[in-house]
Amino acid sequence: METKKTVLAVAAAGTVAGVAGLVLLASPAGAGEAPPALPEIGPEALVESVLSTTELPALSGAVSLENNLGLPVPGLSEMGQDGAVRVFTDGNGKHRLQLPSDGGETTVIDDGKTVWVWDSVDRTVQKTAHGAEGKGKAETPLESRFADPATAARELVDTMRADSTVAVDGTARVAGRPVYQLVLAPQPDERTLLREIRVSVDSETRVPLQIEVLANGQADPAVKVGFTEFTAGPQDASLFQFTPPAGAEVTEQTPDKEFRGESAEDLFAGLDIEPYGEGWDTVLTGTVPADLLTSQLPTGPRGEAGPGGNPLDLLGTIGKEVSGDFGTGYVIKAKVGTALITEDGKVALGFVPEEVVTEAVNQMK
User: Fold this and answer.
1) Cβ within 8 Å of residue 68, ≥6 positions away
2) Which distant-in-sequence residues (6+ apart) come within 8 Å of 64 by Cβ?
3) What single string gives the DSSP state of each residue in 152-216?
4) Alpha-carbon distance 173 to 156, whole Å?
5) Which InterPro entries does the UniProt record give (predicted)?
6) Class of domain 3-265
7) Which of 61, 97, 265, 291 has the lowest tally of Cβ within 10 angstroms?
């Protein structure tokens, strides 16, 4: 499987890795403010300056999300409801991410050697060590990626620019800082529901501060996520240190259970997932066990009435039943994407119209 295609598929499907990159990067520009006067820069020069910034500078910030997908997405739907996500980095590879949750907080800390994930509600700690010294970034645990959001943005820009028209559309302010507006739009032959991805790049640090995902025919962004506060400068060293609290349950990840690597390739290497197509109209395809689709859904947590039935029944209520060479399935549409799930467990989804996911399912063996 080609790395480029996989990264595109992740972005198109809104899966965890791709979503994490969008969730942790952006916020809307200030409304009603005059655009800042900045030196002119061409799109390729701006892209190269973003890609050449290999490490986040020391900073702290707050991140929030606006989800107008028209479809609840795990992780996306909840962000910002319980408070702002806090991001910290020391500029030397150490990161901290604080995600508020119902009644508590999940904290991810990369101290440069070990990544710690602390859940204050369950009082559990997940410990994942970096790889052997000298093996470089390929041995950085995936969990650390969630605390290094700008890297995900750079990888997205690097991957998508080959299939995009790239332009600089003026300047704006994000979290009170002057930014360049980098716009990636699909080439004319791309079959996608997206109109453009707009990335706001900090004029001083070249850190991406904003991503807005805009769909065809929609005035407002489908997803708008990012920094509402951003302060560059040295951070307290104690932020990047962690000692498990007394009584916490600590689980240490072993190498064969870790997802590592420089791209989403490693995340999906062990799963039955393949990309179909390329560019903006890449579709992520895979399978789920057919018996899972017909298994009984649980009732409520205290024995009260729950959804009942099985997943196929649920799909019938939120999707449209369709049939074709693939058999029978259900199409679920959102503002920015489409998913097709067949009764025998085939799945295809992407930022594309129905005919493209249908085409993808038809070619699955």
Assistant:
1) 218, 220, 221, 222, 223, 224, 335
2) 27, 79, 80, 84, 85, 225, 226, 228
3) HHHHHHHHHGGGEEEEEEEEEEETTEEEEEEEEEE-TT---SEEEEEEEEETTT--EEEEEEEET
4) 22
5) LolA/LolB/LppX, Sporulation_related
6) mainly beta
7) 291
Q: How many Å apart are CA 262 and CA 242, to the nearest integer?
A: 25
Cβ-count burial 295-314 (b if 16+ within 10 Å, e if not):
eeeeeeeeeeeeeeebbbee
Contact between 166 and 23 (Cβ < 8 Å)? no
Evaluated on CA atoms 342, 346, 347, 348, the torsion sign reads negative
Contact 123, 114 (CB under 8 A): no
Q: Give the residues across from 212 on adjacent strands.
A: 198, 224
Digit-coded pLDDT (tens) for 260-288: 433 444 434 444 678 898 889 999 998 87
The yes-or-no verdict on residue 343 having pLDDT over 70 is yes
With contact defined as beta carbons under 8 Å apart, do 166 and 182 qualify?
A: yes
Q: Beta strand pairing status for 327-333 and 320-324?
A: antiparallel
Of 8-22, 129-143, 227-241, 331-345, the one with minimum mean pLDDT is: 8-22
One-letter amino acid at 350 equals G
The whole-number pLDDT of residue 301 equals 47
What is the spatial distance between Cα 95 and Cα 147, in angstroms, rounded to a whole number? Answer: 6
